[in-house]
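If you are new to this repository, start here. Below is one unmodified record pulled from the training split, so you can see the exact layout before writing a loader.
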Amino acid sequence: MIGFRGNSILGSMPPVVKNLIMINVLMYLITAITGSFMYENFALFYFKSPFFKPYQLVTHMFMHGGFTHILFNMYTLFIFGCVLERVWGSRKFLFYYFVTGIGAALLHMGVMWLQLRGYIADLNAGDMYAQVNIQSLLTTPTVGASGAIYGLLLAYGMLFPDNIMQLIFPPVALKAKWFVIIFGALELLLGLSGRGGDVAHFAHLGGMIFGFFLILYWKKNNRMYY
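And here is the target side for that same chain:
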């Protein structure tokens, strides 16, 4: 086992963030080697799909669809996760991470349920192409930690609303609370418009929504920091 000491990036990370990143990278490498096996077993499928397994609600959070996907998510996990874990402590941070990630998956499932109802109605009305849409919905996997990542963004914006955040591209600096509002609005608009391609925009929103209500609960019960 390799030890990390001093001021190295990995050695300076709090334990949960460090282990989450390491597990995600490991899963990405295994997926690159084994290919479809990992997607068929550990990606998230709609609950009526023959490929669905309950544990996929968790395992899909550790899988990604490509290098850019995992790079963005792990970079964001590092930036926001390190701050939040040091503020909340490892146990509360890990709990929040899984609540938002699983919550994102549940909202995504709810949206898929609505889509499926629409496809079935189209099929009953004589639209034969609807069968293709139904088959695609049942066999398309969902992967990524993005729901939990958006939950972390929401938490940072609620805990540090006036902190200035700087985007690399475009080079815009805004208070954290405005970034959260803008990102949330964009996800809602893209999700409703259907122009987001293969991106699960409502899963991103789900992470933010579950995070929002969990933080409100903690605040109401004076449990935010212990």
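Two things worth knowing about this chain: The first strand starts at residue 164 and ends at 166. The mean pLDDT is 90.
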